[in-house]
Predict the 3D structure of the following.
Amino acid sequence: MVKTPSDIPSLEAALAARPRDAALWRAHAQVSWSLGRVAEALASFEAALALDAGDASAQAGRGEALMAAGRFEEAVASFDAALAVDSRMAPAWRGRGLALRALGLFDAAVASFGEALAADPKDAAALYERAQVLGLQFREFGSAAADLARAIEIDGAGPATPYALGDLVHARMQQADWEGIAALRARVTAGVRDGTHPATPFVFQALSSSPADLQACATNYARRHFPAGPRACAERVRAAGKIRVGYLSGEFHAHATAFLTAGLFEQCDKTRFEIFAFDNGVNDGGPMRRRLEAAFDHVIDIKALSDAPAAEKICEAGIDILVNLNGYFGQGRMGVFARRAAPVQVNYLGFPGTLGADYIDYVLADRVVIPEAEQPFFTERVVYLPGSYQANDDKRALAGAARRGDHGLPEDAVVLANFNQTYKITPEMFSAWMRILRAVDKTVLWLWGAAPATAVNLRRAAEAAGVDARRLVFAGDAAHETHLARLALVDVYLDTLPYNAHTGASDALWAGVPLVTCRGQVFAGRVGASLLGALEMPELVTESAADFEALAMALAGDGARRSTLRAKLAVNRTQAPLFDTKSFARHIEAAYTTMIEINRRGDAPRAFAVTNA
């Protein structure tokens, strides 16, 4: 059997002798596909189908190649053609589901994965992919966890389902289903250390407090899925003219990333910089989207482009610095960065950790989230910004005064809150919160609107900890302005570990609510300390779990102390660096300018610090 590039000539010789042999064309396509030669594979599948349109295997293979080329609607049609010949072809149903998911047709995708499993109940990959949709799109974490557990039972988290174990932990954390979770977390960590790829970097961030383990996870993931490809752009930036900065994101709409960065884009110094949005997401047409479109000089949609043409488009735009606002979070495009779409490439904001890829030159940080001693755990060179690394928008509006009664909150209670997604709430963190509630009468805990099964589990955990489940209140979804307004009803915002609140923490501080945090061991767990440092309120940063509980209890029981903190917060919000969007824009532009100067000199990227102007 042909397996390597050196074997291809024998196939091509056979094709020269028998050019109308459909089976040979299909074999050539399959080998090309196995070697990553997508264009060649597609051409050969089509040659096979031109000779035998009823070849279901060739139609399914063509569908896979079309998906790799980003041609998802055509891929669905090709899978349909294969299934018209063989309706029990499980891989074709699975491929069809993946193409439908890429098109945002999630109900149809789930149905397709179901058909794959009807054809082959042991199709572990179909179980795994259905779980992704059930969890990410429909928040049906119980069903997702069941699929993942079954996939592991079949495949052992093998080649068809490499991240199933980590995803199982994540789904169960999202549902606050904590039975045996410590042992599962330990298995994931052990797998990261022995290189078996048990979790994606995004999932692992909520499980680990080890910078070395987080780097290993990211590095292995980048090597496996996003190895450096053919370079799209020259090594040097343009010699003159405005610095062209491209921001690549899938969240240029009503999303946390946009809520943080809109003011930064608006404050851009257009005499020195030209800024581009490379959009990999959905244009929802809403107020935030319109605001972003007005702030950018250019908005370019790359969602329908596969990685190579997207990288070429960015290169053609003459981008000097390309900023990765996603990393391994959300609608990211690491494959574009792997093709070196710009001479300078930067990791910023979306993923609070290293991306583990040599082609990402810099990470923007501050000295709290990445202490100098931890630079070796980052593949990128660390650039220190003054104050906090986190961009903030000083135009965030609150939608008028909120009333406790409208949100199911007792009028006479002390409201403690955390609006993180449930996967950030570890059993240990929840136990600490319950001890705080037990210690201070008339306190309630206000949490983000969990799925019904998650709320049941959290209430059950509260009762097991000796706390009346009615003291847990769940907030519904709300527009951002409304959410900011209701945050003002909170007395104390409680942080999480090992993964802090990020946008949620700055939202709370912007709404005037004291945040109690504990400084963690890694970037994701030090964001609260970073924000409070830049707000000049270090008294709310604790250094141990015991001190965190003690401070939270003290504030919950002392209204006068809370009032003093809120008064200080009201002043510092307008005077301290955290919410000074204009100054932050100048600092990040100074960082970009230094990156350009280093590149123009022909020097390798290096760590540096931006001084406070």
Observations:
- The domain at 404-579 is CATH 3.40.50.2000 (Rossmann fold).
